[in-house]
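Side project, low priority. Logging it here so it doesn't get lost.
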Amino acid sequence: MSKPFRPDTICVQAGWKPKKGEPRVLPIYQSTTFKYDTTDEMGALFALEEEGYFYTRLQNPTNDAVAEKIAALEGGVAAMLTSSGQAANFYTIANLCQAGDHIVCSAKVYGGTFNLYSATIKKLGIACTFVDPDASEEEIEGAFRDNTKAVVGETIANPALTVLDITKFANLAHAHGVPLIVDNTFATPVNCRPFEFGADIVTHSTTKYMDGHAMAVGGCIVDSGNFDWEAQKDKFPGLTTPDETYHGVIYTKQFGKKAFITKATAQLMRDLGSIPSPMNSFLLNVGLETLPLRMEKHCSNARRVGEFLKAHPKVDFVNCAMLEGDPYYELAQKYMPNGTCGVLSFSLKGTKEDAVRFMDSLKLCAIVTHVADARTCVLHPASHTHRQMNEEQLREAGVTPGLIRLSVGIESPDDIIEDLAQALEQV
């Protein structure tokens, strides 16, 4: 067996493998449908008896090539692209749970994810218990129920920037016969591969570093192929018992290690349809080709900026796990020794109004909802991404009134620091 390529090579070479006379660059298959010569040929596709393309809502060559690349980057067996990171997070839970089920989730997650699991899936009859990711195993153990079907966390929480102890959560999940799902958006597989530490399924908002240029919203689900669904047959009937909407196919029997992604594609994408456009997947692929280069620059810039802010007399604290003394420095060294990401957060010594004045005084750093692209940007989580939370929920998520999230881009670090310095003078 040949040795697998390293991440830098995978980012450039994986997914699209042109044959003689085919385009060197991944083509955009901008077509809703695909033609066949006989009725039986297409019938075999609808019966899941043959692989192939017939309708882009289920599969598209451009989308599949990019999904294959991301699966290779994470070290997984299969992946599925979605129209957004939120769609990926929802599909992952919906692929495992039904009304009456329960999940356990880290309390320090992106505000949109918190709302998805605390409110939206609750309306579908799926309950969620949030736990402090830094709590002891014994405390987290108390959150599990007989109907728990999954455990969820973020490699690097947005915007609290806590680092998840993946091994701890994986061990707890597996002790209860359920998979660990990790959102690896901020770290990316360049800096962390959660499967190597026991995670079973990874999700991404590809909108962030993978795309890297704020051009295309997207998401991805990657399955490690390591979780034994058959060993927990009674917990996951959707995977281990006949699907009558597909002539009684049993996904674990027919598709083995690819059962989870096949079910998500054939069943959920068929019915809910949150697909990315082939054009967006093409743009994502272009971003992926430079992901290792950009992540190295994002991380080195963030270290410089973090050190500047940490030393500034008007700054109360800085959250950046790449800085010695950060509460998550040791965990970051274990899971992401080459760097975490370009996002850091900090709080000024002062009021919420001081934070707003500082942000409004920035010239190079833009106030935008987005994060994790080539350009430096900033936002106020309590007013923006986490606005829907109450004060108690904000505290649980690690969002203080004066907290500022800074996404350090790949510009000159000196220019970024000079802009921050002049804005701090206005406070």
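Brief comment: Residues 291-311 form the longest helix (21 residues).
Revisit when time allows.
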